[in-house]
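Appendix B. Raw example, untouched.
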Amino acid sequence: MLTVLHDIAELTALERPVVLAIGVFDGVHRGHQLVIQQAQARARERGAVMVLMTFDPHPMRVLRPGTAPKLLCTAEHQQLILARQGVTHLLLCEFNETVAKTSAEDFVRSLAAACRKLDAVFVGETWRFGAKRAGDIDLLKRLGVELAFEAFGVKPLAVDDKVISSTLIRQAVERGDFVAAKELLGRDYTVLGTVIEGRKLARQLGFPTANLDVHNEQLPPAGVYAVRALIGETWYPGVANLGRRPTVADTDDLSLEVHVFDFDADLYGQLVEVTFVQHLRNEKKFAGLDELKAQIGEDAVKARLALSYSAT
């Protein structure tokens, strides 16, 4: 179970020494996971509690809103992923103008003062923080000597001589390269959404769908996909359309509709996580509902085959 703190002052309530892993962690990719794993190992060794500290919104939304990246995962999705990484304590701090103007040194001193005992801080080796991004691993180590904690800069990981980054993953997702995204993430790329009420047209066609209000911002290309959907604690196979539904709606906004095979239950209001397994075809406009229904049937057959093959 993940305990979520929202203010640095709440660290005071932790009775054991604290090991902090600090960063943005958008996507929780393999590089992030290495920071987490090293912090967790230190915490086990020292009988401490590991607290992952991150920020919401993404700092670039405040610092450079016009060029802020599309999110790989929102705070809610990030928490699900972190819990699977064995993280038990998350310090989710609001990032605002006040935080942005806080000096790096004051930021570190506030963390040390809030903990009954700050044992160690782990960050990515190149991570910068504080006003004007003046803080770095050297500052952490210098203050660590004064404030009696150890600071560790974790070296970045690389794939094919390219450092793993959220930017590379966004690019892979944008072009629909789920194999590359998985290699960089260390897990399947997924999106999280809340099931909302739709027009129920797909049910009339014989293929009831869960219509998702998708939280993620970085999405793959529009099209039809073989997918797996996490409902409760179970992954179900299915077929999904990510697009603008040109035959029945033709809207400007992307929507995600998932037909879960052999599943019929009321999911309204529930969270569903979706893994894109294979692109089946591009989205297209059909002459009418009969043609659309026939195509959905063909899509479902292809999706079942793709998912059966991927499971072997």
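End of appendix B.
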